[in-house]
């Protein structure tokens, strides 16, 4: 198993390299870089993207001389524009900038944000607890609810319980996470009905003055609605996955043999079927966690005013804050790849008969 893990860890390097190459090449063709952003703000345009779309001032890019590339900056001294390029490292050829970025990222040096005057790694460490909170709690709650419910539905397949719970699950899956989040805000955050939960943030303003139990209660009070909004789609998928997995195992011969030997239904289900049926559910753990951690975090964090990685990455992309964009992309990719390796380890933990090295050989 050690050799297999070592090979998987080595594969992380070319995978991250491919992600960075593709996105770095794409960035070279995207209009509205950081220099254009600064020029647009100085000329009162506010946002360079409005100008690209045809409004505001005349900030655009030409491919002529070095000092004439920024038409909107013709009223600014060329030396000022060149200084901006040097400040952002855009005065160097793309290939040189890319290799410098690779060398820095290999040492987890992501540089400094263009517009926040702080290091990217500090920003990531500051925002990561919020995203981990959403991803981890949503995944755990989805598994705690979905596995028992899926088993119950498999045992009572075709019954009225199975029918009406399937209807609820399908409706939950059909509701977009952001729409459910807005519904929760309207109902329980003082939108139009009850002021039960806070409207925004992860902690209260008087957090530092609370006792330990008070901080724990305040923390769970704030994350209740965001976690519920993040959990709904994962909960539906996992329940049906667990049910179908159990149904497949229940129909196999070894289950019939166990029942014929006089074993109780509980012993058959949890002593024999559970281990085999849970393999496919455990295999889906990385997809569920990463889906909540990355996919829904931007919308959920924006709706509930949570300052996490998803919102940080989105704002950095809009502002063309390239160090933050590539830093968060690098961390997202690394976490996703390491989570996949963790999934394989969980496979072996649940069923020691699995040997990835023998299968590869």
Automatic annotation (TrEMBL):
<dbReference type="InterPro" id="IPR000515">
    <property type="entry name" value="MetI-like"/>
</dbReference>
<feature type="domain" description="ABC transmembrane type-1">
    <location>
        <begin position="128"/>
        <end position="347"/>
    </location>
</feature>
<feature type="transmembrane region" description="Helical">
    <location>
        <begin position="219"/>
        <end position="242"/>
    </location>
</feature>
<comment type="similarity">
    <text>Belongs to the binding-protein-dependent transport system permease family.</text>
</comment>
<protein>
    <submittedName>
        <fullName>Microcin C ABC transporter permease YejB</fullName>
    </submittedName>
</protein>
<keyword id="KW-0813">Transport</keyword>
<dbReference type="Pfam" id="PF00528">
    <property type="entry name" value="BPD_transp_1"/>
</dbReference>
<keyword id="KW-0812">Transmembrane</keyword>
<feature type="transmembrane region" description="Helical">
    <location>
        <begin position="163"/>
        <end position="189"/>
    </location>
</feature>
<feature type="transmembrane region" description="Helical">
    <location>
        <begin position="324"/>
        <end position="350"/>
    </location>
</feature>
<keyword id="KW-0472">Membrane</keyword>
<feature type="transmembrane region" description="Helical">
    <location>
        <begin position="9"/>
        <end position="30"/>
    </location>
</feature>
<dbReference type="InterPro" id="IPR035906">
    <property type="entry name" value="MetI-like_sf"/>
</dbReference>
<keyword id="KW-1003">Cell membrane</keyword>
<feature type="transmembrane region" description="Helical">
    <location>
        <begin position="277"/>
        <end position="304"/>
    </location>
</feature>
<keyword id="KW-1133">Transmembrane helix</keyword>
<feature type="transmembrane region" description="Helical">
    <location>
        <begin position="132"/>
        <end position="151"/>
    </location>
</feature>
């Amino acid at each position: 198993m050690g050799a297999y893990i070592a090979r998987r860890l080595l594969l992380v390097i070319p995978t991250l390299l491919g992600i960075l190459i593709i996105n770095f090449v794409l960035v070279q063709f995207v209009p509205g870089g950081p220099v254009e952003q600064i020029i647009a703000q100085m000329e009162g345009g506010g946002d360079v993207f409005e100008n690209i779309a045809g409004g505001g001032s005349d900030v655009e890019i030409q491919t002529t001389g070095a000092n004439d590339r920024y038409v909107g900056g013709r009223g600014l001294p060329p030396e000022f524009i060149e200084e901006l390029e040097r400040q952002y490292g855009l005065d160097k050829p793309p290939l040189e900038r890319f290799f410098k970025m690779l060398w820095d990222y290999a040492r987890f040096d992501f540089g400094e944000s263009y517009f926040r005057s702080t290091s990217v790694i500090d920003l990531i460490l500051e925002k990561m607890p919020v995203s981990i909170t959403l991803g981890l709690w949503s995944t755990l709650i989805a598994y705690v609810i979905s596995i028992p419910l899926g088993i119950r539905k498999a045992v009572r397949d075709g019954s009225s319980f199975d029918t009406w719970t399937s209807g609820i699950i399908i409706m939950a899956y059909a509701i977009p996470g952001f729409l459910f989040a807005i519904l929760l805000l309207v109902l329980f955050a003082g939108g139009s009905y009850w002021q039960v939960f806070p409207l925004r943030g992860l902690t209260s303003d008087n957090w530092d003055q609370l006792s330990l139990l008070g901080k724990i209660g305040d923390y769970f009070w704030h994350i209740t609605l965001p976690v519920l909004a993040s959990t709904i789609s994962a909960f539906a998928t996992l329940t049906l996955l667990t049910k179908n997995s159990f149904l497949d195992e229940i129909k196999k011969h070894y289950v019939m043999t166990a029942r014929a030997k006089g074993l109780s239904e509980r012993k058959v289900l949890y002593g024999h079927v559970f281990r085999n049926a849970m393999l496919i559910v455990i295999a889906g753990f990385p997809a569920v966690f990463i889906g909540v951690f990355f996919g829904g975090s931007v919308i959920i964090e924006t709706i509930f005013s949570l300052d996490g990685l998803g919102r940080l990455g989105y704002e950095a992309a809009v502002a063309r804050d390239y160090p933050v964009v590539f830093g968060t992309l690098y961390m997202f990719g690394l976490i996703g790849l390491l989570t996949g390796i963790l999934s394989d380890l969980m496979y072996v933990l649940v069923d020691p008969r699995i040997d990835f090295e023998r299968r590869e050989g």
